């Protein structure tokens, strides 16, 4: 149950508990009438004020006890106590105030009404039956079945049953109506999953609950691979059927309290309360395998011959500190999974998070500022941000292929992550321009390596990455920028980064040039070997990355 729903349930419980407390108050009146029949009201208040205080204390104690056992989730105990205590007290009050001739038999009405509202019509009728049995028992034990009192009580019992049925039915109808309105507002009409709006409400609630309990919260971002191709091939009706089947698979592979939502189009999310990243990865992998194993009509005609999903995972609070960070992390991880040949699970990973763990305290503020700049670039130019993610991935592969030691690998990967950070100072109009850049605009764009070096040069751990960043637009033939270095003068890792940067630029959809296929990009790298690129760097890159495609 979500946090807000728990709050609403708690409020209902407090209201019904207050109704039961009212029955206790009226029962107290019956007790006073029994024990102080020969005293006037003034004498009772003055001489027996301790009795009033004791009664008030008992009522408050009973009230807070009901609240305590409800909030501590002893549901069955709460239900038994909240019904039986008022019934027993009402029964004793009747016994003390004239047994079968008592005028306090109406006390059962408070219990019946509150029970019918809180627990529903069945429990309300059961409580009415118990109350009716007690009334009949009193009449038969202390009176006669032929008496006027017994006949009156039969009418009272009928009235109690009618009231219980009416209140319970109204309460059930109201709850069903509220539930239907919630479904219209919170449930996706096609898949039956929660919708985008509900996901954000649920995320906020689960973040609050996670902070309160100190537990983890994992988020899965799930994207169908090649779904647009399938939709174009078979039409939207068949596509909708696939979405329904995917929804069923998702629900079958998670717990009942996990929150599965359709985020939009062919994207889904799953919130996993009390689940850390390790178990979350296992859940994601189970879902991936279940989708892959399921047969979808016509799947043999799509690339790969199978309908698959790419899944990204991030976890609060280990990988994200806010709900927005959790969404961004899972989304980035999903993008990485989709980019890496699809049909895989990727966990969120941030180079800067690792960097912050390694650097001195004095540099943490600078790195925090760099993270902010990266976020600004993401908002300003989606291509540059996604380009950075892909370049980092390729550089990691090359570092592993070269068996670089930890220090060299970090130097290379940090440079890959920050090589375009200088674009923060370049206008969005230049970055996103579809026409050819003017001479002035081109000169401005060529300054971004120096701008990037200037931003990070004061972070001690990043100083060794500065030459790589500064030189990643130099050409092997000396015609690059900013310093027209050539051949072996250029740092070897910078030469590798040049190849990676150019390959991703060629194979990505950019505003100012058409996208090349991977094979076309490989051919371009080979044809430019010895001029723009180091031939050995090209050979290493194609040998390492080529097997992916």
Provide structural commentary.
There is one protein chain. By secondary structure, the chain is mostly helical. The chain folds into three domains: 3-185, no CATH class; 188-349, Alpha-Beta Plaits (2-Layer Sandwich); 351-549, Hypothetical protein af1432, CATH 1.10.3210.10. It is built from 23 helices and five strands. The chain has helices spanning 3-35, 41-47, 49-71, 75-96, 107-119, 121-142, 148-186, 196-213, 227-234, 236-252, 277-293, 323-339, 351-358, 361-380, 382-401, 406-418, 428-431, 439-445, 448-456, 466-471, 492-506, 518-527, 535-545; strands at 217-224, 259-264, 267-273, 309-316, 345-347. The protein has a five-stranded mixed sheet, sandwiched between helices. Helix 12 links the parallel strand 4 (309-316) and strand 5 (345-347). It is elongated. It starts with a helix and ends with a helix. The mean pLDDT is 84.
Please describe the topology of this protein.
Layout: H1 3-35, H2 41-47, H3 49-71, H4 75-96, H5 107-119, H6 121-142, H7 148-186, H8 196-213, E1 217-224, H9 227-234, H10 236-252, E2 259-264, E3 267-273, H11 277-293, E4 309-316, H12 323-339, E5 345-347, H13 351-358, H14 361-380, H15 382-401, H16 406-418, H17 428-431, H18 439-445, H19 448-456, H20 466-471, H21 492-506, H22 518-527, H23 535-545
Parallel strand pairs: 4-5
Antiparallel strand pairs: 1-3, 1-4, 2-3
Helix pairs in contact: 1-3, 1-4, 1-5, 4-5, 4-6, 5-6, 5-7, 6-7, 9-10, 14-15, 15-16, 15-21, 15-23, 21-22
